[in-house]
Write a structure and sequence with these properties.
With about 220 residues, the protein is an alpha/beta fold. It has seven helices and twelve strands.
């Protein structure tokens, strides 16, 4: 275990692994990643694993999705790890009061260069013959969405990060923060204390608990 680090990342899900890699890419390699189980043991490995451009509910989120999508399309070239991405497309359907909302959503995505086709019930039926479209009024289709392998993404980030000097500690649980005179001085873990002035909270479902340490310790 590292006894000191410029940055300590709590959690080795996709956010923690990505943060470690991008810090190392910027030249910040004195980094410790603390994971209480194994890489991706939390929600990252249990997600639907869809790379989707259709989930952006507003323009900002859609732009972020587009940026992330472009990054993942270059993932294997940049990190040397395949992510097993397959374009299967994404279908949304609506009737009644949701029709206008779905049409406006498609218009917004198309204005940002994210292809989203507006479909009639007949179009939907042709695309998915097994669906009952009798009660549908409209559908939208994003052809570029699809599933990928979250484990490969996390390990791709970790592999490159550790090659650059980042230290990954699995089976090491973060227990609290050390704060002196209002300043962070370290992270308490099940293996000891890591002295640091910077912590990244990437604890996923436990992020609220980790965040509460800073509040409770500062009083």
């Amino acid at each position: 275990m590292k006894s000191t680090a410029e940055v300590v990342i709590i959690g080795a899900g996709v956010i923690g692994c990505s943060t470690a890699y991008h810090l190392a890419k910027m030249g910040i390699t004195d980094v410790a990643v603390v994971e209480m189980e194994q890489v991706g043991a939390g929600t990252s490995s249990k997600s639907a694993s869809m790379l989707s451009l259709q989930f952006g509910s507003d323009a900002l989120l859609a732009r972020l999705a587009k940026y992330s999508y472009q990054h993942y399309m270059q993932f294997e070239e940049e990190l040397g790890t395949p992510i097993d991405f397959r374009k299967t497309g994404w279908l949304s359907v609506a009737s009644g009061p949701k029709v206008t909302e779905l049409r406006q959503h498609a218009e917004m995505l198309n204005s940002l260069g994210i292809r989203t086709d507006v479909l009639s019930p007949e179009d939907v039926k042709q695309l998915y013959p097994e669906l009952n479209t009798d009660d549908l009024e409209v559908g939208t289709w994003g052809p570029d969405d699809g599933p990928f392998d979250p484990h490969m993404i996390m390990w791709g980030y970790v592999k490159r990060a550790t090659e650059k000097g980042v230290k990954l500690s699995q089976g090491e649980k973060a227990l609290g923060l050390r704060i002196e005179n209002g300043h962070l001085t370290g992270v308490e873990t099940s293996a000891g204390v890591i002295s640091t002035n910077t912590v990244v909270n990437a604890a996923g479902p436990w992020a609220q608990e980790v965040g509460s340490w800073a509040v409770s310790t500062s009083h």
